[in-house]
Specification:
The complex is a heterodimer of chains A (262) and B (419). Chain A is mainly β and 262 residues long. Chain A has 2 domains: 122 residues, Immunoglobulins (Immunoglobulin-like), CATH 2.60.40.10; 90 residues, Immunoglobulin-like. Chain A has 3 helices and 21 strands. In chain A, the strands form 5 sheets. Chain A has a 5-stranded mixed sheet with strand order 15-1-21-18-19, with no helix packed on it. In chain A, strands 4, 14, 16, 17 and 20 form a 5-stranded antiparallel sheet that branches. In chain A, strands 7-13-12-9-10 form a 5-stranded mixed sheet, with no helix packed on it. The longest helix of chain A has 20 residues. The radius of gyration of chain A is 21 Å and the shape is globular. Chain A starts with a helix and ends in a 6-residue tail after the last strand. Chain B has 3 domains: 207 residues, no CATH class; 109 residues, Cytochrome c-like domain (Cytochrome Bc1 Complex, Chain D, domain 2, Orthogonal Bundle); 52 residues. Chain B has a two-stranded antiparallel sheet with strand order 1-2. Chain B is globular and about 75 Å long. Classes of the chains: A mainly beta (262), B mainly alpha (419). The interface between A and B is medium-sized, with 30 and 36 residues.
Chain lengths: 262, 419
């Protein structure tokens, strides 16, 4: 009994020491990476042109198109949001250390960059204006206080998030009504947005059972996916996965065109 | 006969009997009831069983329009609610009760949903208290109004709208009404929280909300009440306008700010200040309906294009559920929501200021923006002295300090110079 206690104190001591010096090695076999690519099934939609009718002398110079549904030449769907739904998911020490800081949402060329921003609770979103015209950023969060600040040319404004949001919140500019973006607020670092080619990657996931959630602004929570030739229902966008240590390639995740009719 | 069916019928008959007894009470007037938030319920695709879960919880937490309940967590005063609630009547001493239904319900609705019988005829629509969003107040954009803010609205009414002044009511009566509006708002926001909570449930919860007090009160209700409690200490600190301010110079500075790229007032209120700069935006209440309509139309379109022949039983069931949802939503939008309208930016040449005409009121509007409306906050971007300059310029607009409208200016001058 006594030995056991001593042994426990000893291990705790070592762990504390390792934590303090920040050298706890993440055992390679405990963490995995999920990758995949969202593919559009159906004839490729063309993004509608946007005619800038405000600040035409500045915004009219840029080719603006609707970013509601962006499908690449090879069928990849951009801006699909993937995140881990589990509340008490274990966080990779490297990612935990990187918590804090800011994420930037830029008003640039009379559009928002990026179209979908991912923020962790405790982080701030910097709303920047790189344009030569004034903007405002109306952030329609539900759990966090909504805000709507003027962002003068070259200026910026900061919004802090304390609670997670059940659905991504829309960000709009009331001066330029075509400008739309989304902010995803999650309590952990496990969220990704698919790139222009439809690919995404979430790193440093704890090995084991996890539940992913899939969302797209036109489709909402994605109710049906096709992976490896099998169609499966994913009610509320929920998809259970087993993460193995190392790489977990989901391959092509096909989304039917009908999901985006809204 | 199918036994389950017969059970349902007996149950139904018992219910009708109960309602009949209740209705035959005092003067044959059926008891007032709180209308559930059908737009949110349909949006969240709640089942009838889930709707009744919410209704049961709401009844326990807030009571009925005739017998409202002020739970200690709400911070509300039961005696004030009693004075405002219930049908209109006087007691033996002649003291009036049922103030809310006498003065407010015909526009704002018994539930405070802005769906009273008169509402559809008004422009703007009466406020729906349920999202807990109020426009004209002395607190930051996302904060609740203070008690004094609501009292001021009741005393002054809202110029330019159908909201009249209730200055003839006694202070006690106004106080009771303010308390009741807070009650309806806390109630409505709690209901929204409950309806939205189903989405977050784990699959093994089988669509049932937790029944623990920690969830129903601490998570769903208390945070809403806390925001109301915090408001009274959250008034915006406004530095006094310098007493020796040179008004003409201040108006000129305000004009530059109005047209400039920093404050950007011109983009919505227009180069003339007539409020014609931005005509196609919605406020939050109307926008919610516009967006839901889009979703309903999209789902209907998808359902129409679906080929049902050779469909699996499961897919067919889903298809039918979608059709039923669309059908139901059409009914809801017909009776439980207004037809959406755009929100015009204020015409600043009229001298009608909805949130009050004191310079301080205009300062609050510019500093914090207007909650629920597209008007953004200047806070953090425009320093206080500049906000005062804009206030002075805006206040000069109805009087033509800065030039008469149109007429005596040559049309070759730029629009900005003409006004």
């Amino acid at each position: 009994m006594k030995n056991l206690v001593i042994a426990r104190i000893a291990t705790q001591g070592v762990a504390a020491l390792l934590l303090a010096t920040g050298v706890v090695p993440a055992r390679a076999d405990e963490w995995g990476t999920i990758t995949g690519r969202f593919v559009y099934a159906g004839s490729k939609p063309t993004a509608a042109d946007i005619k800038a009718d405000k600040d035409v002398e500045v915004c009219g110079k840029h080719k603006l198109v609707s970013e509601e549904l962006t499908v690449g030449a090879d069928g990849g769907i951009a801006n699909v949001v993937v995140f881990v739904r589990d509340k008490d998911v274990k966080i990779h020490p490297d990612l935990a250390a990187a918590k804090g800081g800011t994420v930037t949402l830029d008003n640039k060329d009379c559009r928002f960059e990026p179209h979908v921003a991912v923020v962790q609770t405790g982080q701030s979103l910097v709303l920047r204006n790189s344009d030569t015209v004034g903007h405002n950023s109306n952030v329609a969060t539900i759990k966090n206080s909504p805000s709507n600040s003027l962002i003068p040319a070259g200026g910026e404004s900061k919004v802090a998030f304390t609670s997670e949001e059940a659905i991504p919140a829309q960000v709009t500019c009331n001066i330029h009504p075509w400008m739309k973006a989304w902010v995803v607020v999650r309590p952990n670092p496990y969220a990704a947005v698919s790139k222009a080619d439809g690919t995404f990657e979430i790193k440093g996931l704890p090995a084991g059972e996890l539940e992913l959630q899939l969302w797209h602004e036109k489709a909402g929570y994605i109710g049906e996916i096709k992976v490896g030739g099998t169609t499966e229902k994913t009610a509320k966008g929920r998809k259970k996965v087993t993460v193995k240590a190392g790489d977990n390639a989901m391959g092509d995740i096909t989304l039917d065109a009908s999901l985006f009719k809204k | 006969m199918d036994p389950t069916n017969s059970h349902h019928r007996r149950h139904g008959a018992a219910l009708i009997a109960t309602l009949a007894i209740a209705a035959s009470g005092c003067g044959g007037v059926p008891p007032a009831w709180f209308r559930p938030n059908m737009v949110e319920s349909t949006k969240q695709r709640l089942t009838p069983a889930q709707e009744s879960q919410v209704a049961t919880v709401m009844l326990a937490l807030f009571g009925t329009p005739d017998q409202p309940v002020a739970m200690p967590e709400t911070g509300l005063d039961q005696a004030k609610l009693d004075l405002a609630a219930g049908p209109v009547h006087s007691d033996v001493t002649g003291k009036k009760n049922g103030l809310y239904r006498e003065h407010c319900a015909h526009c704002h609705g018994v539930t405070g949903d802005g769906l009273g019988p008169t509402a559809a005829f008004l422009n703007p629509y009466p406020r729906d208290y349920r999202p807990g969003v109020f426009k004209f107040k002395s607190t930051e954009r996302a904060d609740k109004p203070t008690r004094d803010d609501l009292v001021r609205i009741l005393h002054n009414g809202i110029p330019g709208t159908s909201m009249p002044s209730f200055a003839l009511l006694s202070d006690t009566q106004v106080d009771a009404l303010v308390e009741y509006v807070k009650y309806l708002s806390i109630r409505g926001e709690t209901e929204l929280n409950l309806m939205r909570a189903f989405f977050d449930l784990d699959d093994d919860a089988e669509g049932k909300l937790p029944q623990a007090r920690e969830f129903l009160v601490d998570e769903m209700l208390t945070p809403v009440a806390e925001k109301w409690r915090a408001a009274d200490d959250a008034r915006i600190a406004v530095p006094e306008m310098p007493a020796d301010i040179d008004l003409a110079a201040s108006i000129a500075k305000g004009k530059d700010l109005f047209y400039g790229d920093k404050a950007n007032c011109v983009k919505c209120h227009g180069v003339t200040g007539l409020g014609d700069g931005q005509a196609n935006d919605y406020d939050d209440w109307n926008k919610a309906i516009v967006e839901i309509k889009k979703e309903v139309t999209g789902t209907a379109e998808r359902a129409r294009e679906t080929k049902t022949s050779g469909m699996s039983a499961e897919a067919l069931a889903e298809h039918r559920a979608n059709l039923a949802w669309v059908d139901r939503f059409h009914h809801v939008l017909d009776g439980d929501a207004h037809r959406p309208r755009t929100i015009p930016p204020r015409n600043l040449r009229q001298g009608t200021y909805r949130g009050g005409r004191r310079p301080l009121d205009l300062y609050y509007r510019i500093h914090a923006g207007i909650n629920g409306a597209p008007m953004p906050a200047a806070k953090g971007t425009i320093p206080p002295e500049d906000i005062w300059h804009i206030v002075n310029y805006v206040r000069s607009l109805p009087y033509g300090f800065d030039g008469e409208l149109g007429a005596d200016r040559t049309t070759t001058a730029s629009t900005r110079d003409r006004f």
